[in-house]
Amino acid sequence: MASASRPLSWVFTLLSLLLLTPLIAADTAGCGKAPTITSGTRTLTVNNKSRRFIVRLPNNYDRTKPHRLIFGVHWRDADFQAVDGGSAPYYGLRNLATGNYSTIFVSPDGLNKGWANSGGEDILFFDAIIKQLSDDLCINEKLIFSLGFSYGGAMSYSLACSRPKVFRAVAVLSGAQLSGCSGGTDPVAFYLQHGVRDSVLNVQMGKQLRDNMLRRNGCASKNAPDVARNSRSKAKTEYSCTAGYPVTYISFDGDHTALPNDSGGDGGANSWSIREVDTFFKQFS
Ligand SMILES: *[C@@H]1O[C@H](CO)[C@@H](O)[C@H](O)[C@H]1NC(C)=O
Ligand SMILES: *[C@@H]1O[C@H](CO)[C@@H](O)[C@H](O)[C@H]1NC(C)=O
Ligand SMILES: *[C@@H]1O[C@H](CO)[C@@H](O)[C@H](O)[C@H]1NC(C)=O
Known about the structure:
Blueprint: H1 2-25, E1 40-46, E2 49-56, E3 67-73, H2 80-84, E4 103-108, H3 121-136, E5 139-149, H4 151-162, E6 169-173, E7 189-195, H5 203-216, E8 234-239, E9 247-252, H6 272-282
Parallel strand pairs: 3-4, 3-5, 5-6, 6-7, 7-9
Antiparallel strand pairs: 1-2, 2-4, 8-9
The structure holds 2-acetamido-2-deoxy-beta-D-glucopyranose (3 copies).
C-alpha cells in the first residue's frame, strides 16, 4: 500500500520543485537579512578605479519582499546627483514607485561625466553594483531595469546588449549607440522615445537602436511613421514581438529633451514620458 503512494508523492515533490524554483531563484541572497546598506552614496573599486553611486531604498523597505531595482543613468556632462535630484528624480519614476511597486533606485556616476564604457569597464561597474546590492538587499532578480537620457540611454542600451539575461527591460530617452553593444543578439524588452527635431543625436540614431531591438525581439514589421516637425504631437507604436519582449517607440515633435511636454519643450515632472516609461516597466511582474 505504502509503495503505491510513494511514487505519487515523489511526483508531487518534483512538481512543486519545478513550480517553485523559478520563484525562489528570483530572490537575492539579501532577502530576509537585516540590511547594512542604507540610502546614500557608496563607492566600489572596479577595473582599479574608484566608482561612486547613489542608492535609494524605499521608506518602507521590507527585507522579506523582493523589490524592483531600477538604474537611472545620467546624461553627458551631468553626474549622478542630476538623476537623483531635481523635480523628477530618476526620470520621474521614483515618485510613482508606490505600493506593490516599491523599488530600489540606483544612480551610478560615469567616468569623466560620461559613459565611454572603455573595454567594457562600465558594464563591470553595473555588475559590481548589482552583486553588492543583491548580497544585502531583497531584490527580485527578474525585475531589474535601466533607463537614461542621451549618453545615459546609450549606456542603458549597452546593458541590454551585454547583459540581456540580467535586465528585464531598458528605456532609452533620445539615445544612440555611444557606449558600445557587446553581444547584442538576445532579446530584451525595449522602450524608445526620440524627438524628430533632435539637434544633438538625430532621430535616425535612435531608430537604429530600435531596429536592432526589433530584430532581436522577433517583432513583426509595422509602419511607424514619425510625427511631422512642428506638429506639436507624438505618435506611439507598439510592436508585436516574441512573448515577453515588447518594443514601444514614441516619436515626438521636439529637440534633445529627456522629459518632453506636449509641445516638445521640457515638461519636467509633468512630462507625458514619465507615465509612458512607468507603465512600460510596470507591465512586468
Ligand atoms: C591601481 O591603481 C594604483 C593607483 O591608484 C596603482 O598604484 C596600481 O599599480 C594600480 N594597479 C593595477 C593592477 O593597475
Ligand atoms: C498587491 O499585491 C498583493 C499580493 O499579491 C495583492 O493581494 C494586492 O491586491 C496588490 N495590491 C495592488 C494595489 O495591486
Ligand atoms: C512646454 O514646455 C515649454 C518650456 O520648455 C513651455 O514654454 C511650453 O509652454 C510647454 N507647453 C506645454 C503644452 O506645456
